[in-house]
Amino acid sequence: MFLLRCFKPKFYKKSKSTTSYMKIRLDIVRKKRTAMVRNYKTDIANFLKNEQDCESYRRAELLLEELRIISCYDLIERFCDCISENLPLMLKKRECPEECREAVSSLIYATAWVPDVPELKDLRAVFTKRFGNFTASSVNHELVEKTGSRRLPSRELKIQTLKDIANEFSINWDPTALKLMLLTETSALQIEGKMETGADGPKIEREKSIIDDQSEDESVLSESTWRGDLLSKGSFSSSSSSSSSPSSLRRESVRKKKKRKEILPYGIISPTYNDEKTQEEKEE
């Protein structure tokens, strides 16, 4: 019981001091971000006056990023105020009360996404030691959208930001030229993408034709070797079957000449009736 009483004031003091330091830190970093926002607005106004719509459009994205971070700071400060108000209630319960569950879980979640506030790590260690881990469902949805997704701002949001700055600095600015330029850029990118995807078709056809040519060459080579083997076998059998007499040698030489005329130009094997004639002459 004595140890429990000693732990409670320590938790109270640590939470109170950490939230106080965190609010001081948030004020410092917010001032820096706010100064950056003013500089970006001034630059955008100058670009709009000089009709440099492209540069003002690029700066609008940087401006929106700074505004996103500042909105995260505002949410964290609101959660710190909620914890400071409910610290006496948190001391009475061993589990995190429903009144500050969203604030505690959101601050623990923000530790990984807001590096400008190192006090968040100390506060996470204090809360997880006392209450354990928290589920992601209890985290504030607005904080998750501003930190977790980090999507690029849309074209309409950037143009609307430029309109607001033009109205703020009393600049007569027409966004029609900027919209036409952005449309032409997107259409050019789409055409280029279609050309790149369409270029793969002829490339594939060329590769297929090369493969077919190679296969045809291989088939021609294999066919020529096969025909050469048959020719060599035929000449060997004919020479072995012929007789050794002079008349038969003359007839064999004449037959070979005729056979060469029939075989070499076209690769056709001579018919078998020549062998039958030689056998009949031998019998005679």
TrEMBL record:
Residues 194-284 are annotated as: Disordered. Residues 194-211, 274-284 have a biased composition (Basic and acidic residues). Transmembrane segments: none annotated. Residues 232-248 have a biased composition (Low complexity). PANTHER family: IST1 FAMILY MEMBER, REGULATOR OF VPS4 ACTIVITY IN THE MVB PATHWAY PROTEIN. Belongs to the IST1 family. This is IST1-like protein. It comes from Camelina sativa (False flax).
